Amino acid sequence: MNEEQLNDTDDLQERLREVESLLARYRQSLVAALDPESSQPAQDAAQNTALTAQILNDLRVRLDAMHPADVAYALEALPLEERLLVWDMVRAERDGEILLEVSDAVRETLIDAMERHELVAATESLDTDELADLVPDLPQEVVEDVFQALPPEEQAQLRAAISYPEGTVGALMDFDMVTVREDVTLEVVLRYLRRFDELPEHTDKIFVIDRDERLEGVLTLESLLTHDPDSDVRAAMKKDVVRFQPEDKAEEAAQAFERYDLVSAPVVDAENRVVGRLTLVAVVDFIREESEAEQLANAGLREEEDIFASVWDSVKNRWAWLAVNLVTAFIASRVIGVFETSIEKLVALAALMPIVAGIGGNSGNQTVTMIVRAIAMGQVKPDATRRLLKKELGVALINGTLWGGLLGALAWWLYESISLGLVMTAAMTLNLLLAAFAGVGIPMLRQRLGADPAIGGSVMITALTDSGGFFIFLGLATLFLM
Amino acid sequence: MNEEQLNDTDDLQERLREVESLLARYRQSLVAALDPESSQPAQDAAQNTALTAQILNDLRVRLDAMHPADVAYALEALPLEERLLVWDMVRAERDGEILLEVSDAVRETLIDAMERHELVAATESLDTDELADLVPDLPQEVVEDVFQALPPEEQAQLRAAISYPEGTVGALMDFDMVTVREDVTLEVVLRYLRRFDELPEHTDKIFVIDRDERLEGVLTLESLLTHDPDSDVRAAMKKDVVRFQPEDKAEEAAQAFERYDLVSAPVVDAENRVVGRLTLVAVVDFIREESEAEQLANAGLREEEDIFASVWDSVKNRWAWLAVNLVTAFIASRVIGVFETSIEKLVALAALMPIVAGIGGNSGNQTVTMIVRAIAMGQVKPDATRRLLKKELGVALINGTLWGGLLGALAWWLYESISLGLVMTAAMTLNLLLAAFAGVGIPMLRQRLGADPAIGGSVMITALTDSGGFFIFLGLATLFLM
């Protein structure tokens, strides 16, 4: 692979532009060939065909010189038709590594366009852990073909890798570990490594195992290089090793990687036998995907959208969230409906009520975000609920007095009614207190019930502070102003 | 440093519990010593003092055995008083590395509790790039002392590191690079490395430079280990190297690290001279901080909160967002105020109007999130605006027909007025179209103006769809129903 131009993002955009300009020239040549107006002589037509072939060949050469991740980037940035044309121009033996790099949505469009035998061929260049990432997206019959073609040892690895649920260390680990025994000298290790054409990517340490494959320690390449070659592995290795089990949560492993600045770590089974390896590169992919999934979920998108997806695909990706929000909005609307007589008598209530609901939602979301983050960092023990609640209620009381007082004064001035102003202030304060209660309570409760505290908190709190805000404000107004 | 127990998160919680139980015993012994009820003989008091000293010593030993990141974790999880007690028990020479690990909010509390000479001493064990991270949080006079104590070369490095703004490669890079010349043999390199006590952390490649310190290529430890020791560096090195400049955006470097699966990369100046090194570990820290800052900003928190911060600190952290939202809510309230006569005549409008506003906000936020992500991935060129707009308007039209139709039917059924139902459907559809326009337009416009498209989009779109939704619905109702 030619990596001549791997310099920076500008180059990446440059390479994308080259691909696009080749595609534009291709389109022109097609149009010229098909144009019924230009009654071109046969000779011109032949020239045109030759030109088209030449352009496609240029495109192929260009793609060959690009890093698989850059080809993936170009595929994602192109509309469907041109994407499939470029995909056709990619050499078949690179299909596998590129499929690994593209986003899920784009991967689907590429796989849909491939024949069964092409897909089987594409997987041949992949490692077992890479295969495991691809398997969920492949048609069933392709998976069977691929599986049959593997040697028994890799069949077992693939079966194991698929068996671990998403979000576990097992689903992220690879099987590219180099292992040595502790009773050899470093010189022997150096000779052993020299027999490799290349070491597995991201090898920063070698795993030291006993005769039963149990992990004894790790030998970092650094120790290997700085110690006397005549010394034993035993003398150069580190025995106190951060290790993971395949069942461990990937999120916790990611935190450990950050906390201890790891580049790779061994994965062992319950008997301390080495079964795989977790690398920082895999962890980074996980972190990125995790934080993207969270961002998308926060905005109510089920998954990342191919920006060239059809309108219908987008509607499907978004409808569930809109439905949930419409239901909560409808409930809030019914709460208002109960107080219609009061609003008829004092129409100012209609204008002021969204302010009460709004501040509750905003403040509640701040609390939820803070608590969810603290839970994720492991800094909130269940017995902390009372202390956190006390603090959040204090914040709510201050905000209620300040902002509630200000808005109450505005209401007084606008509608020339001091009692309306007082009801406004009281309602805002009460809704802020409700938001603080729910903001602490909802994530803590979800954690205690074993659910992910990060999910759905925002929808629930907004639903509560909307309906609650309308109820508190209109209820107080009905009691004291009617 | 004893790393006996670096295994996983359960152990981390275990270590935290040990620290906490020592603190609890310490408190008990203090209470026993100070209890005026127990008229204890002097002998008991002396025993108690000895016990207290013993407990503090146990705590000191326990902390000594912990990884700096774990001490930082414990400090973050403790209330202020106990945090400062533990901080006192940490050996002074470890203060620096622990200050680097704690969150900004907690770092502030620790630095506030330290004397000038303690702070200067704490920085002595740090590398220049680590110092640069700490400098913004240190009092001015400490910074001056620290700077004076550095050798001239490190003064220059520190000055350079501080000069790069946050979010650039320069602010993330370190100066721990190992360099060799291309005309030596690998055997010479191996001997050279053996002279190091330890290599800089996360060294996966050695930078190959010419006599003017210009980057010629990189020699990965892997090639060093798998090539014949008698061959030249020139033969084993890779010439096509992903390199960065200190001025490059950290976000783009992070994308390149992910795209090309890098563990470290050279940083060069405009003349291609090696000036530093960027590691994946630093990039991961950056990614995490970036995504956390985004999460916090989305919820309207200015910065991460120490969960033990005072109520006032929390109020200050959150007030700006609440103020902005109250202003937009107030504007929306005034829009409603304009239509008070209509609401008085048909109070159903008050109950239905939050639904119209709500669906616009939700749908607009989905669009903004999608567009902002696509812009961040570099997949949206300015000329794509029209195509994206067409798609989003299509999605809005479908959602308007479906959900607007459904809610219109509900309104018809609830209030027995088909014309009210039709106004509801029309208003929801129009507000969804407005949301689509703004959802595409706001981030694209911000990008074209050179602003960060990710910031503030959500507030702006919600403000627009709230006021817009009320205006459209109440306006249509006034036109057609009054």
Describe this structure in words.
Two copies of one chain form a homodimer. In chain A, 67% of the residues lie in helices and 5% in strands. The first copy, chain A, is mainly α and 482 residues long. The first copy, chain A, folds into three domains: 9-168, MgtE N-terminal domain-like (MgtE N-terminal fold); 179-280, CBS-domain (Roll), CATH 3.10.580; 311-481, Tetracycline Repressor, domain 2. In chain A, strands 1-2-3 form a three-stranded mixed β-sheet. A two-stranded antiparallel sheet of chain A has the order 4-5. In chain A, helix 21 (418-448) runs antiparallel to helix 22. The relative contact order of chain A is 0.06. Chains A and B meet through helix 1, helix 3, helix 12, helix 13 and helix 15 of A and helix 1, helix 3, helix 12, helix 13 and helix 15 of B.
Average pLDDT taken over every residue of chain A: 87
Helix run count of chain A: 22
**Topology pattern of chain A, helix = H, strand = E:** HHHHHHHHHHHEHEEHHHEEHHHHHHH
Oligomer: homodimer
The CATH architecture of the largest domain in chain A: Orthogonal Bundle
- Sketch the major β-sheet of chain A: 3 strands, mixed
- The Cα radius of gyration of chain A reads 31 Å
Alpha carbon gap, first and last residue of chain A: 80 Å
What's the shape of chain A? flat
